[in-house]
Design a protein that fits this description.
434 residues; alpha+beta; Monooxygenase; Neuraminidase; 2 domains; 5-stranded antiparallel sheet; 8 helices; 28 strands; globular
Length: 434
Amino acid sequence: MAEADATPPTQSLEPLSASAAAATQALDPVMEGEMQAAAGARATPWSRLSCDLVELIFSYLPLRSVVVAGAVCRQWRALVSDPGFAAGAAAYRRRRPWFFLYGQNNVVLSKNQAFGFDPDDGEWIALPSSPSALHVDCFAGAGGFFFATTSSTRFCYAPLLRGPWRETSPLFFSRCNPLVGVFFAAGGHRRFVVVGGARFIGGLVDIEDPLAVEIYDPATDSWELCPPLPPEFRIGNSSQWLSAALLGGRFFFVFGIYSCSIAAFDLSSRAWTGVRVLRPPGVLFSFLLACGDRLILAGLCNTPVGPPCFALWAVDHCSMDFAEIGVMPRDLLSCLFDTDDDDNKFASLKCVGLDGLVYVFNEDHHKAYPACVCEISDGSTAKRADSTSGLNLSCSWRKVPPLPGPVDRFHKVIAFCSPVPADSVLGGGVDREP
């Protein structure tokens, strides 16, 4: 046999000739279908999906899973990095707000730690603790941003999970541990409202504190001085004594954790409502939260028999009428403590929440800051009726997984809930002015 006969014929990559094309068109339809099926079998299932369908699937994943998916291949990276993906994902599915916990060590700054809990993923992630270039006096968060006040009496902020940090022009009045909120003004422009906070002069608390309220415009880097907090809040006017809830993007409610005094600042008219008292029977201390279009009060309450319980009430923001909607199971409340013997143990309980998620945690170190969460939902299967709103509400309680170790001992713990904008994590929204 000649050597040329042993050489297999090569496959031609040239376009089909007219006759070959005609022959292909004349193939038996059954055979043509079998050939197409064989070609499809060699492809992966994902490669047969359209980009729109892949984007839809990714939009239902937890945020961290989307980041991991973006590292699989260039095509997926380009898809999740596109600014349009974040907007489209928000339209398909509303992501629930995260629970953030920040621990400060007053002696060794390197032991400061920050964590974020994604309820959609059910896991914690460790975060950068603070702006490394600034000495931070206090730390807070709201509306998709971290906030910090510094020793220079200035204010700085950064998008959650991914910087950069920006420092503002000086506040009219220096303060420590203020309440902070994020809202949108006319035209859709974002603003930051800073309320109260202890003021220091020469290292001492100013007893003539003006109870200042200031609103910051990031576009112009300017502060607007507003009417101050009502004088009823003068005793304990920092975030250690007050809680706040932003309702409907217009009313910023301020509530005394122990005094139970409540007032609202109208962000449109720049005016305060009258101060009232919101104290369900037996309440020892409580926290005010926003849940959709209603207020939720969460607090420790004495019971006729046995130890105190931790209860939730729905509150009508106009009349201040309230109705109990749930009580934390005693076994969950007990898991936040080491023993039942200490009468003062409940003083370390804190509570934050947003949009139907209420987190209760112990700010002591003994169990690495354990926490429980209650999910409030509407539905006909609710166990209790909210008589103030006419809606049925159900409460589902569970433990939050422990913080990822090792966890240091902190002198101060700051916690808050906030939505995490997808574009601040995936790209396209980090370097834009807020």
